[in-house]
Design goal:
The chain has 163 residues and is an alpha/beta fold. The protein has helices spanning 15-29, 54-62, 90-99, 103-106, 133-162; strands at residues 3-9, 36-42, 84-87, 109-111. Strands 2-1-3-4 form a 4-stranded parallel β-sheet. It is globular, with a radius of gyration of 15 Å.
Length: 163
Amino acid sequence: MAYRVCFVCTGNICRSPMAESVFRARVAEAGLDGLVEVDSAGTGGWHEGDPADPRTVSVLEEHGYGGGHTARQFQPSWFTRLDLVIALDSGHLRALRRLAPSPEDAAKVRLLRSYDPAAGDDFDVPDPYYGGRDGFEECLEMVEAASTGLLSEVRKQVEGQAA
């Protein structure tokens, strides 16, 4: 059975699709394809059915990542099939924990930057939507930095399932 990770931001067109794409690439590089499933969603449904923001897509593509994506809204019923729900900022963390049907499900929700030792005590990935392209570049840097630690944690969980 695959280990399932879902990245969540507000509208699922900027930060969470970026995190999904980067982490999916890290999973593939680590040879964990088929053992780890990666997707993303938004806390709200404003952009449901839309592609990722063009700035997200261009930054991802320029750095060698795939950009195919369709936005969707996170549903509380998904907790039962997910192993880890990764929030991109503390507002998402609170919203997701409120949606969780049980304390065990709430415990599945973590902040992405908590996996980056260099993040200090600032675990939020700023929303680049209303800014310029540099915000999308900064978002990618933060996502990439945290993905290393997240991959290490997921690998431990996957290897623990196989034992």
